Amino acid sequence: MKKHLPNAVTCLNLFSGCLAICHIFAGDLETGAYFVGLSALFDFFDGLLARALHVSSPIGKDLDSLADVVSFGVVPGAFLFDLLRQSGAGMPTWLPYAGFIVTVFSALRLAKFNNDTRQSDSFIGLPTPACTLVVASLPLILANDRFALSPYVLNPWVLLGLTLVLSGLLVAELPLFALKFKSFRWQDNQVRFVFLLLSVGLFLWLWAAAIPLIILLYVLLSVLSPAKPKIEAA
């Protein structure tokens, strides 16, 4: 029985992603963003549960990637499609479809992850949930715009640039730390604790507007940390 529990949580990730898509195409991007948050939680806990129960299987690994390609591949593409469509007055009619470039690169990222033995304790390239959280934060920023960011969020060139930057980061040979704690000793997890503390502070201060900054912080800490992950030959 216990070996099926992580897969059940993975299925909840997939289901939440499907609900996010439904709300996005119904024009309710804010609710779609909250379902992305649920998907991210389920994606975190399925792995945590599998490690805690000491269960794993090829089916579980494949199911996780299939769920992720929907929740963290199709979903950010749908968000960007809708946002580009809103911002595209006077722009080429094909422009909104460029948002699905993120979907393509997310699928490539997940395929690389499944076949790259270097990514057991760290990541190479931006994880798809991190990419999706950046995109999902945009409608939340629009709905609660305390910092007058709406003109930038709905600028088609900003959105297109964000699409290309995120797509590149997904497949970049960039070593990034994983939030996997083998122990809770400070000396073993300095960069993780610093990241979590700063992230909580930013989120409490800026709310949704903090999410892109938190992901940028994640990349910068990974690159600048003296103990940053090293890329070994595959």
Automatic annotation (TrEMBL):
Q: What is its main location?
A: membrane
Highest taxon in the source lineage: Bacteria
Q: Name one GO cellular component term.
A: membrane
Where, by residue number, does the polypeptide cross the bilayer? 7-26, 93-111, 123-142, 157-181, 193-221
Keywords attached to this entry: Lipid biosynthesis, Lipid metabolism, Membrane, Phospholipid biosynthesis, Phospholipid metabolism, Transferase, Transmembrane, Transmembrane helix
Query: Which residues constitute the signal peptide according to the record?
Result: none
InterPro entries listed in its UniProt record: CDP-alcohol_PTase-I (IPR050324), CDP-OH_P_trans (IPR000462), CDP-OH_PTrfase_TM_dom (IPR043130), CDP_ALCOHOL_P_TRANSF_CS (IPR048254)
Look up the record and give one Gene Ontology term from the biological process aspect.
phospholipid biosynthetic process
Membrane topology type, per the record?
Multi-pass membrane protein
Q: One GO molecular function term?
A: phosphotransferase activity, for other substituted phosphate groups
Pfam family of this protein, just one? CDP-OH_P_transf
Q: Where in the cell is it found?
A: Membrane
Family as reported in the entry's similarity comment: Belongs to the CDP-alcohol phosphatidyltransferase class-I family.
**PANTHER family attached here?**
CDP-DIACYLGLYCEROL--GLYCEROL-3-PHOSPHATE 3-PHOSPHATIDYLTRANSFERASE-RELATED (PTHR14269), CDP-DIACYLGLYCEROL--SERINE O-PHOSPHATIDYLTRANSFERASE (PTHR14269:SF61)
Instruction: Tell me what this protein is called.
Output: CDP-diacylglycerol--serine O-phosphatidyltransferase
The scientific name of the source species is Hymenobacter perfusus
